[in-house]
Amino acid sequence: MNRREFLSLPAGLIGCSLAVKAEAFDAPRHGGGRGRPLFDRIAPHPPGKARSACEPRMTLVDLDCDVFIAGGGPAGVCAALAAARHGARVTLVQDRSRLGGNSSSEIKMHIVGADCHGSRPGWREGGLIEELRLEDAVRNPQWSFEMWDLLLYDKLVSEPRLTLLLDTALCGVEMERGLIRRALARCDKTEHLYRVGAKLFLDCTGDCRLALEAGAEMRRGRESKAEFGESLALEKADKKTLGSSILFTSKDYGRPMPFKPPAWARKIRKEMLRFRGVRPWEYGYWWIEWGGQLDTIRDNEQIRFELLSIALGVWDYIKNSGEFPEAAAWAMDWIGMIPGKRESRRIVGDYMLTQHDVEGRRGEPADAVAVGGWPLDDHPPEGFDRWKERPNRAIRPKEPYSIPLGCLYSRNVGNLMMAGRNISASHVAFTSARVMATCAALGQAAGTAAAICARKGLLPRALRQDKALLRQCQQTLLRDDQTIKGLRNEDSRDLARRAKVVASSSHPPSRPENVINGFVRDMPGRWENRWGARMTPEGVWLQLEWPEPVSLRQIQITFDTGFHRQLTLSASPHVRRSVIRGPQPETVRDCRLLWRPAADASWRELARIEGNYQRLVRRSFPTVRAQAVRLHILATNGAPIARVYEVRAYG
Length: 651
Prior knowledge:
Helices cover 20% and strands 25% of the residues. The chain is an alpha+beta fold and 651 residues long.
């Protein structure tokens, strides 16, 4: 019996399978903290008797959820968080013991995105990736990639609607009338086979593993100029891709540290580094790249070997060529064993992102759900073997660009969505959209859309075609601080939009009413979309007033977290110089939310916020009938001017 035959069998033909729902992870919360997963749901005791003919030693466990996600990189993590926070029961499988993908401690690539390493200030992504970056900056001042892994794990296991299965690889699907009905995943470490039913399935694997099993239309390689009319495309299409890289870290030990390379390390000559500078050497080199001329999936073992041989050869040159006597006390303290993959397959959706979209030639798409902005950054597939050439060609778009929902679901598998480096894009457009902050934003968009589809009983194509529902999806993303270029808050439920806004004072040229204009970012030096006031010993305040009392149960505030600077975890000393590891000084730290029932009534406290370092803050409370609400700011995290981008109010 093969895998597909096994998947198609009714449960009754293979024994009494254990069926559990992912919602069983809604563990009680204690003392205001987060609950812990009920592990007997994914590893039942005593083990069930269900087995398959092809895997008689594995225990079969049936799970049921709304949204199934394969892949735990930034895209999968953000998709899972978004879907779960919007009410969907989510199961995420990750084939490794760590989350984070290329950003994890196994690969150690720092996250970059639309702000182009800070060279496009003001365009750092908001939303979930901002929440994670801010959390990491505060909780991980020691710059540890392992602590980043732990942060992501904490975020996922702390979501009560989310089931996380680590060390678990997707290995099959069950199809019915063009839709995925169940996914099969296996965990050899625990000897479990999971059969997961869901309404929506998200491929965040990067390699399109879920799409492959579902028979989704995919493409691989570089298109010709003729196909999409892209000036940066090839004259003739081929199957080559960007290569993979292996990074390393090193440090000064203060004493001689000899290095002897293995016999299979490459011998590097000075001329090979003509276009590839090796200073500083704390944090490897992205240009140690190779393998795009092969199949980056099937030939991964060969690619790993060649990358290690290049990396060790480069380090041998640094240590033993005599060019760098100051390297005598330096030694590697870590080298990656997993190639950081840039490209493999891409899933074909209803819309194909191309160079024209990245360069803004098609206008703003009606179904925009995320933003990109990294350069069109193409590399020779042979990587280091093309040492006579520059290692990349980067052309930066004039402005960030929008990515539409039509790129995030399969054209021929109705309930298959995707996020990350496998979205529907030409190779040229992919060279920009592939970076991890963009992938994270795509994950948030796909996860939010999937939760809406699951709740409404719709497929993604129907969501995109329903203009009213699509607008609702976009407004939901904006409420969650997702960056969507050009769109403003038009949420009819936001009572703040009908309020008069006043303040104790204002830092010129900011105005109090900026906090309800619908936009939540300013370019450096501009005060068009935020209010600011110089702090005083008594604090400063911002106030919403209504002509008549309104019913309120939640206030949402978007603070300033310094979008003009980089915020990423990196081992590069150059990158570290521009990053603050801790609360961002502009962010409001301590404040009080007050309300009053009428103009002549006294102020009463709704909530107190202390020690804040996040950009998006929500506070819910029992419903009150308020004619005014005041945000009384008591302290920032260091800046002399308090700053607020937006205040929302919901009943």
